[in-house]
Amino acid sequence: MVTTTSSGFSTYRTHQISIRDEKAGVFSNSRDDDLENLEVDYDNNVTDLYQFISNLQWEEALLTIRKNPIEARTWVVRYHEDEDKGMMWRFLPIHSAAARQPPEAIIVALIEAYPEAIIV
Predict the structure, then answer these.
(1) Rounded Cα distance, 120 and 112, in Å
(2) Are 18 and 35 in contact (CB under 8 A)?
(3) Cα–Cα distance between 41 and 79 in angstroms, integer?
(4) pLDDT of 26-70, one tens digit each?
(5) Model-level pTM?
(6) Which contacts of 110-117 are long-range, i.e. CB under 8 A and separated by 24 or more positions?
(7) What gap in Å lies between CA 113 and CA 102, rounded to an integer?
(8) Per residue in 41-55, is it b (16+ CB within 10 Å) or e — as a string?
(9) Cβ proximity of 93 and 49 under 8 Å
(10) Which string of DSSP letters, residue by residue, matches 2-59?
(11) Three-state DSSP class for residue 90
(12) How far apart are CA 42 and CA 90, in angstroms?
């Protein structure tokens, strides 16, 4: 299903994770560069990894990174309730984890799962 978010991005919902295309197209799941555009809405379908990080559940977060590393490269977005105001914030799991002073193993695992996270 293709929808347009209040920020003007089109998204394609695949189970829990959406693939975002800034040009209003839909990416195929078959190309590696498509993985740069994974996005979930914090209020409607946040990833397990982001939930564990938010709740400081470090062991569960580490297991999730190992089991489902795609979640390490999935942006989590929160929108204002008033759709006209658009996006409130957009974070990768590493951004949220770093703000919570996690064990070193979490940061290492997140970087191993998605090295590009440290440059975005």
Answers:
(1) 15
(2) no
(3) 8
(4) 333 434 455 667 999 999 999 999 999 999 999 999 999 999 999
(5) 0.72
(6) 110/65, 110/72, 113/65, 113/69, 113/72, 113/73, 114/69, 114/72, 114/73, 116/36, 116/73, 117/72, 117/73, 117/92, 117/93
(7) 16
(8) ebeeebbbbbbbbbe
(9) yes
(10) EEE-TTS-EEEEETTEEEEETTS----TTSGGGGGGEEEEHHHH--HHHHHHHTT-HH
(11) strand
(12) 9
- Strands 75-79, 87-91: parallel, antiparallel or unpaired by DSSP? antiparallel
Rg of the chain, C-alpha, whole Å: 14
- Which residue matches tokens 């555009």? 37
How many whole angstroms separate alpha carbon 24 and alpha carbon 8?
8
